[in-house]
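hey so i finally got around to running the thing on that chain from the lab meeting. sorry it took forever, my laptop kept dying and i had to restart like 3 times. anyway pasting the input first so we r on the same page abt which one it is
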Amino acid sequence: MSNFSTNTEFNPLISLNWRGDHLELLDQRLLPESIVMLDLYTPEEIWDSIHSMKVRGAPAIGIAAAFGVVLGAGQYQKDDIAGWLEKVKEVCDYLATSRPTAVNLFWALDRMYAAAVQLSEDPNYLSISALNEGLTQEAIAIRAEDEEVCRMIGENALPLFQDGMGVLTHCNAGGLATAKYGTATAPMYLAKEQGIHLKIFADETRPVLQGARLTAFELQQAGIDVTLITDNMAGMVMSKGWIQAVIVGTDRVAANGDVANKIGTYSVAVLAKAHGIPFYVACPMSTIDLNTPTGAHIPIEERAPEEVTEGFGKRTAPQGIKVFNPAFDVTPNEYVTAIITEKGIVRAPFDQNLKALYS
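ok and heres what got predicted. didnt touch it at all, straight out
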């Protein structure tokens, strides 16, 4: 098994860093024009960063929330373990209201609360300071595991791509959306390391332009061959024979293999099927939600109309116009060729094979 290079050219920007008493977080809203690192000291600041998309990408949201729990628990001043545990639960419930679709948020919060319960029952953790340190180590472990998981996703995905292939991706499932490496971009970085030339096409991803501002930026910084296109060019590019595979990330995978991802993903999947192009979804197992039966049960966040009518400060639509602005759509499983996880590649029937990952 090959390892990723530690050369920073593959990931010049790290989206989250724990600094001992606060979380340092890259404000992704300002890329690519400005690189601004924010210092966050409270769970309220973490909540705002998730809600306002200063941090985005399902794994990165989960990591940020984990450290938000640490910061909230650190605010507890009394010497009462039961009270501390109640505080942790309160912070978890609060952070869970920041965004509804990315299941990694709830996975991370559930894991942090379970760790808090376990720590509170451990005779080796008799002080609040010790409990807080144990909780901090759990958040650090979540971040470290995400790096390793993304690397393994890249290893599993790479055999699907050959030298010279054209690959389309939508939104940003890159290093900026995770602790490092990304999910859908992990095989791109690994291919670069091994001298495999992939021609990446990045959808602009309207209305917030994560593909243009983030994916195109980070791949260009890594020296990867990337071409930016608008969302409505994908069909034309496919028709020219320039695309041999599509790979995207996801914010939630339902038990039947339906996937929720950034708005526009469903359209790409339909186009890919019409052109006989495989459509791959890359994600950690923490994004798979076996408790959600189908995509119809996934809550879809609807964001402010100003993202459409006044994108980046310039009005482009009439005053008072009605706007529909869902942040995500659901791609039915029949359009999904395979789901790539750290434990391997899952194909249909997804309802059976996703469950088998946990056996």
